[in-house]
Specification:
The complex is a heterotrimer of chains A (240), B (193) and C (261).
Chain A lengths: L3 E2 L2 E2 L11 E5 L7 E7 L2 E12 L12 E8 L14 H15 L10 E11 L4 H15 L9 E8 L2 E4 L3 H6 L2 E7 L6 E4 L2 E2 L3 H30 L10
Parallel strand pairs in A: 6-7
Antiparallel strand pairs in A: 1-2, 3-4, 4-5, 5-7, 8-9, 8-10, 10-11, 10-12
Chain B lengths: L1 E4 L4 E2 L7 E4 L2 E4 L3 E5 L4 E5 L11 E10 L2 E5 L6 E4 L9 E9 L5 E9 L3 E4 L5 H5 L4 H10 L2 E4 L4 E5 L3 H14 L5 H9 L1
Parallel strand pairs in B: 9-11
Antiparallel strand pairs in B: 1-5, 2-4, 3-4, 5-6, 7-8, 7-10, 8-9, 10-11, 12-14, 13-14
Chain C lengths: L1 H19 L15 E5 L7 E7 L2 E12 L10 E8 L14 H16 L9 E3 L3 E13 L4 H14 L2 E6 L2 E10 L7 E8 L2 E4 L3 H6 L2 E7 L5 E7 L6 H19 L3
Parallel strand pairs in C: 4-6
Antiparallel strand pairs in C: 1-2, 2-3, 3-6, 5-6, 7-8, 9-10, 9-11, 11-12
Helix pairs in contact in C: 2-3
Classes of the chains: A alpha+beta (240), B alpha+beta (193), C alpha+beta (261).
Chain lengths: 240, 193, 261
Amino acid sequence: MELIKNGKRIDGRKFDELRPIKIDVGVLKRADGSCFMEWGKNKVLAAVYGPRECFPKHTQNSYKAKLTYRYNMAPFSVDDRKRPGPDRRSTEISKVSREALEKVIFLEYFPRTAINVFVEVLQADAGTRCVALTAASIALADAGIPMRDVIVACAAGKVEDEIVLDLCQEEDNFGSADLPIAISPRTGQIHLMQMDGILNEKEFKKAFDMATKGCLEVHEMQKKALRDKYEKIGEVYGNE
Amino acid sequence: MKEIVVPGDKVDGKVESYVFREGNNAYSMVLGVMDNKEDYGRIVPLNGKYFPQVDDYVIGIVTDVKRGGYVLDINSPYDAFLASRRRYDSGAVIFAKVGDVSEVRSVSLTMDKQLYEGELMEIMAMKVPRVIGKKNSMVMMIIEKTKTDIYVGRNGRIWLKGGDIEKAKKAVLKIEMEAHTDGLTDRITEFLK
Amino acid sequence: METSEIVWEIKKDSIRKMIQSGKRSDGRALDEYRKMEFLENYIPKAQGSCLVKIGDTQVLVGIKMDVGTPYADSSDRGNLSTSCELVPLASPDFNAGPPGEESIETARVVDRGIRESKMIDLEKLCITEGEKVWTVLVDIHVLDHDGNLIDAASIASVKALLNAYLPKMEDGKVLYTERGEKLSVREKPVSSTFASIGGKNLLDPSYEEEMVMDCKFIIVTTEDGNICAMQKSGSGPYNRRDIEEMVETAIRRGKEVRKQF
């Protein structure tokens, strides 16, 4: 399979081009905050409950809210049906994603409560952990949870000796490196980073740069989606 | 001038609530509406739960009986404790004032009054100020026109009894839905005629 | 959660009073459904799919097909397997973890509706008798719970199956990303759920109504006006006349709903 031909990728994109992205905010009734994202062929739904009472009581923290993050894939989301329930990969993704949010959310404002983030991957096409975290970030803002920033995630990788942005499934399957990152766009600080494959130092720096730029591009879309949802707001609520 | 801010957006230094500071700059903590006037600026969050503040009047429901008092559900991630010698059953609806909120958010209530019979509504806590109105003007207008007895809890709970209760409930729901628009007072006045 | 139960008790009375006078809090008649919306082929990568909205309830069903071995007592037929995930984002009451009784009941009732109506021609799913058959995997993923999950799951499953394709088979290998022939279906079962509140039976209960109801009754009917599945779900007892009335209503409603297919 030729992944790169005449300077274009298998889906026609330039090396530093993102897949098309569509964002819908506040799509669920029961959840406190929610976000549905289509990113390339990925379809991901993120939702937030909280702050709410923390159960079981003995896991409560007197100084801050307990944050949980659960990344889950629907059985029909992948080509080879996935059995329902958490597997090792989902558990790892959940852990690093939760850790990405822990220093961004003002957890200390809500002692003894829980803030639960749930992400369901409804259709997968590589880069799902980045889509998930980006959507979760929007869902947290939608829920009114105070944060230092709306963090954003994006990946870059290596495909046939070229460093490219935002790998699609074929590129992920046959490429030679994948570098997903999540940053706080305001400060540039990195809250999530993983890598697998082989990259030399120069390639790593190039991929890091590319992924960062990708993050900033997606962040503009996050902000626009949040503002668009509430743009009809005219007057502020009465006396406070 | 109003604009929507998201967490991390830089805002004017004079804004006091829902901001955090880093270096010389102030940033919004929440998704909200930024209201920038000459001498002050404030951010009103667009969503969020009710978090009890001292002196708030709330409507709670007794969920547990303890020695010397009661545990009340106040429609918040935090329960409240009411020290009272009065006898209340589980499920009793109580109108009370928030007396104290500790560092770990333990909430104490005081000045309790039981509300008997009547109907209980729940709306978004952040829309409650609109239902109350400037100097209670909005809620007084509903009470006057419908002859319904109404207690409004800052925690989003509203208790109504008697009078044209259906009209009163509809008026409250209308305010909740249109809280962010202009000319609401006039429309509610029209609606209550 | 204890707290919620006591708070629900307060709401119960006012909702019940309204229903006694024939009214529901969203203004619907007792036998009226909320607005239904269908988004077919919502997950193009699956072999079939449909997102259904009934009011604010949202249920997504994906169909996957896999090659497997037949059961010993049906060596010339393919298999059907239905499962349901009540994922935690759909409701504050749902927890992560293995399927609980509500999730299993939903899957099994939807499965019975499909299986007993003989909707899928399982014989056409036989590849090599006794050795290789297709298994149709129906996965129900509940996304937003505002009541009546079973009807939503059932109609989403039926619509997903109606637009489902077998994957292509080439030299004995399955090419999951390519479409083969359309799944052979010959029935359209329709599920109707009634909630019993203070002796009245309401169609399409909302979440609020389900929290205050005494019991639930589900009837699945077929194109020729037969009943193919039933379930009394919950404790409150029924009397016979009510059940016969619900059956009549369900058959009538089934005919109307099928016009939308």
